[in-house]
Amino acid sequence: MRTQFLPFSVPTISEEEIAAVGDVLRSGWITTGPNCARFEGAFAAYTGAAGAVAVCSATAGMHCVLLALGIGPGDEVITPSLTWVSTANLICLLGATPVFADIDRDTLMVSRETIEPLVTSKTKAIIPVHYAGAPADMDPIRQLASERGLALIEDAAHAAGTEYNGERIGKKGTAIFSFHPIKNMTTGEGGMVCSDDEALLAKVKSLKFHGLGVDAFDRQTQGRTPQAQVIQPGFKYNLTDIAAVLGLGQLKRLDGFNARRAELVARYRERLADIPEILPLGLPEYGHLHAWHLFIVRAATDRTVFMAALKERNIGTGLHFRAIHLQKYYTETFGMKRGLLPNTEWNSDRICSLPLFPSMTDADVDDVAAAIKSTLAAAKD
């Protein structure tokens, strides 16, 4: 058994990135400034997006996008239940109603087939989730949104570096990325809204900084125009230069991070192949490049006991995620219950995320596999 605890995730921060943060701290300009503008440009170039707006979190980005689209009371927004609660929470906070689509049992992705039956005259938007680093099958979903006149917002929190049919997520339409510390690249906390809709990005830029008609930092004035007017009520969702300079360094290494993640996953699959109680997620059959944000398995045993036993063996784990429609607020407010989304519920009861981060060693993967085998053997005794 390991003598040192292996966390579920650890950010990979270089000395060069630490030094860059130090330079910003010494510069006197530590909030939204030139590095934030550079980060937006670099991330847009990386994804191929027409434009990008940096925000303090993906949740903040989603809030701004939903508001910019006019989502409010009486509207319905279709999204999966097997995702982080922030999206559904924001829909509710805006007075709209979340409508949960079921997922593919193996890949955990929503699809046109699971979304289309839920579209009504009240539906205003669809929010598919690119899950664990793989993309949803977007072409049919885009076609559905176009046919029905619906807004389409891609939850790309797991998808920095993910490709769909040869194009990076973020190049087309509107996508929101997360830079939380467990993500493939980090700014500490932060997010990015990418879009080919110039008017939408302008609204997001205003909403994320008090509703002003200009940003906190303008490339021309090298600051904010003192006479800037408030054109709508807004928020304090801007990213700092401290975070942005870290993001610039991380972005340069993102492809390398993702390549290492893929190597670790290949080793996991090899080491776990002979354990029938452990079922990794399936891979989409359409063209894609997986970013491997998470390595998720479904455990055919009591998950609570399984995760606790791994912790006793110095192996950290995560749970991504519990089905939203079975959370207390949603059962009590909307009358949701088991049986509504069978594939979602089956996975919600079984999924477990194993350690995965670029600085892991091959031996770490072997230790996890050995701990799983030991845990399952002990459960049979």
UniProtKB/TrEMBL annotation:
The modification N6-(pyridoxal phosphate)lysine is found at residue 183. Pfam families: DegT_DnrJ_EryC1. Coiled coil: none annotated. Its cofactor is pyridoxal 5'-phosphate. The keyword Transferase applies. PANTHER family: DTDP-4-AMINO-4,6-DIDEOXYGALACTOSE TRANSAMINASE, TRANSAMINASE. The keyword GTP-binding does not apply. Keywords: Aminotransferase, Pyridoxal phosphate, Transferase. Belongs to the DegT/DnrJ/EryC1 family. CDD domains: AHBA_syn. GO terms for biological process: polysaccharide biosynthetic process. The gene is arnB. One of its GO terms (molecular function) is pyridoxal phosphate binding. InterPro entries: DegT/StrS_aminotransferase, PyrdxlP-dep_Trfase, PyrdxlP-dep_Trfase_major, PyrdxlP-dep_Trfase_small. The active site is at 183 (proton acceptor). It comes from the Bacteria. This is UDP-4-amino-4-deoxy-L-arabinose--oxoglutarate aminotransferase.
